[in-house]
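Our collaborator T.R. sent over the components below with a one-line note: 'Predict the complex.' Nothing else. No constraints on interfaces, no templates requested, no preferences about which chain binds where. So this is a plain run: every listed entity goes in together, and whatever single assembly comes back becomes the starting point for the next discussion.
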Amino acid sequence: MTALTEAIDTLVTGNRILARENVVDAFGHISMRHPDDPSRYFLACSRSPELVEADDILEFALDSKCIDDRGKTLYIERPIHGSLYQARPEIMSVIHNHSTAVIPFGVSKTPLRPIVHVAARIGHEVPVWDIYDNFGDTDILVSTNDQGQDLARAMGNGPVILMRGHGATVAGLSVQDAVMTAVYLQVNAQLQMDALRLGEVTYLHPGEVDIRLARSQKFVGNDRAWEYMSRRAGR
Amino acid sequence: MTALTEAIDTLVTGNRILARENVVDAFGHISMRHPDDPSRYFLACSRSPELVEADDILEFALDSKCIDDRGKTLYIERPIHGSLYQARPEIMSVIHNHSTAVIPFGVSKTPLRPIVHVAARIGHEVPVWDIYDNFGDTDILVSTNDQGQDLARAMGNGPVILMRGHGATVAGLSVQDAVMTAVYLQVNAQLQMDALRLGEVTYLHPGEVDIRLARSQKFVGNDRAWEYMSRRAGR
Amino acid sequence: MTALTEAIDTLVTGNRILARENVVDAFGHISMRHPDDPSRYFLACSRSPELVEADDILEFALDSKCIDDRGKTLYIERPIHGSLYQARPEIMSVIHNHSTAVIPFGVSKTPLRPIVHVAARIGHEVPVWDIYDNFGDTDILVSTNDQGQDLARAMGNGPVILMRGHGATVAGLSVQDAVMTAVYLQVNAQLQMDALRLGEVTYLHPGEVDIRLARSQKFVGNDRAWEYMSRRAGR
Amino acid sequence: MTALTEAIDTLVTGNRILARENVVDAFGHISMRHPDDPSRYFLACSRSPELVEADDILEFALDSKCIDDRGKTLYIERPIHGSLYQARPEIMSVIHNHSTAVIPFGVSKTPLRPIVHVAARIGHEVPVWDIYDNFGDTDILVSTNDQGQDLARAMGNGPVILMRGHGATVAGLSVQDAVMTAVYLQVNAQLQMDALRLGEVTYLHPGEVDIRLARSQKFVGNDRAWEYMSRRAGR
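Returned assembly:
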């Protein structure tokens, strides 16, 4: 395999892991910045991640126009991906999903915060973006670059943002990094919901989150989890 | 395949998807209006949807009498289907189920309302029908045309109605439309239960629901979800 | 197959269905009164229901002594079965389980009551038996005929009893009847827990429960559910 | 098979059961004291338990230094294992996990206590250890022998300890004993969360817990559960 073929293979594995771990269902998508050209990114055509094959992967410019769509239908919400790659040069992979554990935190006043060490990678507190604030009544989809840029601004430098009545977007330094953050975002949301039922909760201390964030940026431990999740996903 | 064989094949796929997504279990059923004769509809004989084959599909008049039962046992609750096709010419598919996420909303005072964009297709607020109101103590089953017509009246022009202590009924413009509504009704019910645990909830804005309803009536996006769910259901 | 071989085959299927539907796990068991001799019953040796084969089925007297144990280890809690067959001639099958949805109702003050039509077969309200009341500190297991008879008395004429800190016991007019009651007991417990989160709940009306109980005693509808659950259980 | 090969095979089965029962995911590990040399223990290299093979098992001294790592990466949290074997000669197996049902009890004020007979083996009340108390801001991992010994001290003579924002550690008299305790710890946590929703809860009486603890130390009943769980785990 060439380096590019291998990178695209990793992107396909990312699709399958997200499906296997129930982070995405019929909807949701994961992209990867072109490893050799920062002004381009790769994303599947409009298929459910569980079914995505290497042949479904297309190339896009940062304005989310497709270089060559080969007659395939495209995801409507490409601007989520393009806008984040444009706003943040360090980001190499973006995931958008409707993970059911996460959605309740986007429609309530309870902030989603890391409660377990493996989820410190979601950051100190996850912000919520509401498309209604700047765009009024819509179909809720992020279908224009204006909307994508508004989302990117609200996300700041963080790895995750919730979208009211919709889902979440995750940004990572690699496909593996983004996938792990999306998986543990979901784990944390479920744990936090359960813990809040038991009364007052101790979240991770800010210093602990900082130490863990520095650690996860070095990808320590990812090899084991990536091997495990790939195998579960049949890759 | 002829057009009719293909339509019946789609109805079988609908049965299997509903089973795979846990919208139905041993009980529950899905019907389709005859594509060429609006005074007839198709529905399986009395088998669990997971096991339904093309050969199990029978033809019914709108009073829910079977044209030729070939010696097979029939579902008791056929009047749900016939009454809806009679009352609403635009409806092409009907689903009745006992989806466990939905039942709690039928026995409590909390209205089921769309909380996430993909579930806007359930309408602004889901009404609840109680068979006890007009029929007193029964076995709860909708076993007469009188009961079916009462249910259809309570449903109005909406896509969904809950049935107290029983389940839900969904009406769609196609098999695909009805299946998607039944699946996302269940998703929304689960999400709403989880979100309500976290405190005050922001539901979709009325304008957002209207825009999404208009969108789902054009079936945009259904191809992706239908392909995904068919594959998961082994079709 | 002879009638007896067939009956034992049904008992094996009952074991497998209970395992598949998560009503039993490593523990729990189902027995059947001998179809030709009311003073005997059949029950597996000490194996988990998912693994039980026809060859594991042994014959017992109503004092729960084994007729011929063929060197196999026996379940300790046989007195649950023998005591119920002794106390109630109409009972043809008994299930004991630790179904996780049911246990919370045995340790709290909230009565388990039917909330959905398919669960009316559990009766108007499920009683709770506490082994501590008459036997003080024990290992909680029903290991003597005295304990079994105390449990049978507390159960009265009903189909179900909860056991504090332990599980539930179900009695049926046939293997199929007992299995369906055990499955829908679990479904109802889960639904009731979810519904109570939403506030005040409307349970089935007493008249509805009576009508449904009379109906389920005629086994109407069981063929469809039994076929479905057998297939899911690989039988 | 020699006795040692067989023991290692049991340790591999323990890994697989913990994975199958969702007690561990990508992370978590189980070790076994060397049956012939109490100053050594066996533990896999850094792989997810679902994937562990006999060839992945390595030998460690009680200071958690590896005797011969054969070039493999090691789990960081080995000191959990070594420190417990050092502190408690009776312990023959140790499990560390991030079981999602258990974590909420480590971050709230609600004590985890046995609510069902099969979970009495977790002891009267499960203590919580917070790494922050003696070590301040860390990455939360138990990566030094000092931290491991602090954890062992907090655990006392009990079979289980929760770790705030992290998971749990379980100690057993055999691999089978530790696995059963870890599985039923998780079952109890889920049941207790559900029961607390229903209001005031009756936990097992102290005398009942004592009787059950004495019973589980004789491994009564374990053969049935071990056979069942091994089969579910594909062993």
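Summary for T.R.: The mean pLDDT of chain B is 96.
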